[in-house]
Structure formats: structure tokens, C-alpha cells
Amino acid sequence: MPVSTALSIRTNPLPARHSGDFMTKITHTLPRRPVILYRRTDAYWTATILGVSVILYIFRYSPVDLYVFNSFGQWFVFFALGVSASGLVYRIDINRTLAFALVTLAFLAGQWVFHGMLDLRVGNDVALAGLALALLGIVFVMTLSRVLMRFKCSWLAYLGRHSMEIYLIHVIAGSGVRVVLQKLLEITDIGLHLALGMLFGIGVPLLVALLAPRLGLRWLFAPPPKLLLGAAR
Known about the structure:
Elements: H1 3-11, H2 22-26, H3 43-59, H4 67-89, H5 96-117, H6 127-148, H7 154-161, H8 163-184, H9 190-214
Helix pairs in contact: 1-4, 3-4, 4-6, 5-6, 8-9
């Protein structure tokens, strides 16, 4: 589960009718206080943050020409989209299967038009079109998650709880095993690269997540205490 989605759900609990859903249960593992920008969770505040992030993304504006500021302006908008979209999607009372079917069609159509018909690339071409495509992808994942709530996917919930660790470490682990295969062992089989890359890309982060608390390294995957503010209003 995306971190932005998890943060939004944690600070904006789902309606009571969804209290038995596994996505509600896993939010108990998340911090009880959001950090910095999302110290408030009302619609006006989150919409304002989203609006500012969209402006930064479209105009590529950064007050300081440094990598960290430029990267924030380029990528934060997708986090903001996840927070705002999750706050809306989980409040819409519509049949889950129907919603998933409609969103899937829209998602596939958007991919085909953007990449196929128009031959555009996210990040390099029309900014608004790229944001629209990203929003379709976010809503697709959310509606898929709602469908999966019907099943006891404990293994998937476990991966979701450790999505931060997987996100941060998968590149190092997955790329590392591929370098060993190709450079040292001279193995170029695509299937083997994909299989081992995925295995190590997910397995190593989960192993680190398991060992970190035992070694007193919980801080590796948590925000610094100074960034945690008071309870959300």
C-alpha cells in the first residue's frame, strides 16, 4: 500500500461500515501523528497543499536551484495526489466491483491514449496529461485494494505494512543481484534476472525490516522525532 494512502487513511479513518476491512486494521501499525505538511487533515488544507504542489510541478518552479528543492517540486505532487484521492475514494459509496471495472477501463484507456496514440512520456511531455494519468493509476490501485478487502490476503497486508522498507531498499537489492548475475557470473537470461531481481528486491527489504527493531534501528524507517507534531486537528 502506498505510504501516502496509508497516511491519509490513518489520519482520516474509514467509515464504520469498513471497520472490518484489512486496510483499516493495518493502519494501527502507523504513527498516530502525521508529519509537517499533513498535521491538518481537513479537505481545505489537503486541497491547498495539492494545488500548490500542482503549480510547482507544472511550472517547474523552485525557490532555490538545488537538487533537493527541484526534486520536491517534481515529485511531491504525486504524494499529494495519493493523499487527496484516498480521502475521496474511500468515502464514495459505490459497488466495489463496478467501481473497479469502470476505473480499470479508464486506466487502460488512459495508458493507451497517452503512450500509444499520443506517444507521450510522463515527466517529459504535457504536465497536466501526466498528472491525469497518475491520478488514474492511483485510483486504480485504490479500487483494486477495495476489491481485495473481500479476501483474506494476510501476505499482501504484510507487504503493505512494509512498503516503506521495500520502496527504500528494493533498488539496491534488486540491482545488486542483477550486477552479480551479469558482471560476475555472466548470466543474461531475462527470466532468471526478473525472478531473482524480484525475489531479492522484496526479500532483502523484508529481512531488514525484521532485523531493524531487534538491532535497535527502528529509526531507519521512521521520521525524526522533531518532525512529528501534535495530534491532527
